[in-house]
Amino acid sequence: MKVNIDIDDAFTETQVTIQAKEWSEELEEIVNVIKKRKAQRLFGVEEDQTVILDPKTIDYVYAEKRKIFAVQKDRSFEIRMKLYEIENILIPHDFMRFSKSVIGNISQIQRFELSFNGNLCVYFHSGNKEYITRTYVAEIKERLAMGGQSNVN
């Protein structure tokens, strides 16, 4: 692998360009390192206590009645952010959109079943389950077939 770095006062922000013949695990690791560099912390509220949430332990995040919740095993935490803001933080941690109101951790998926209406019912290692709407099924199946690796940015 060849690395070129061009430092110049004319640049207003850092930009990374990767040129490759095809996508690889090595590129995936590089992208994840770059994205995690600016990773923000997620804070959840449970019974008037604020808790730092580790993305690896979250099964899914969902919106309900204008509030956002993160689910870990048998616990649920309110997150005081917008769903799209949380999605931007969690994408480098193997999260994908499951529906308009749900973002799920594909690393925590144990199995899934196809429902009669074309949706997927996803079962997490913790025993929790959630549904993936038809709009997102193909993208998630493709990502899971790649071993959970993302091929975007």
TrEMBL record:
Domain HTH LytTR-type residues, every copy: 43-146
One Pfam family hit: LytTR
SMART domains in UniProt: LytTR (SM00850)
UniProt cross-references to Gene3D superfamilies, sorted A to Z: LytTr DNA-binding domain (2.40.50.1020)
Domain of life (superkingdom): Bacteria
GO MF terms, alphabetically ordered: DNA binding
Keyword Electron transport: no
InterPro entries assigned: LytR-like, LytTR_DNA-bd_dom
Keywords for the protein's UniProt record, in alphabetical order: Cytoplasm, DNA-binding, Transcription, Transcription regulation
Name of the protein in question: LytTR family DNA-binding domain-containing protein
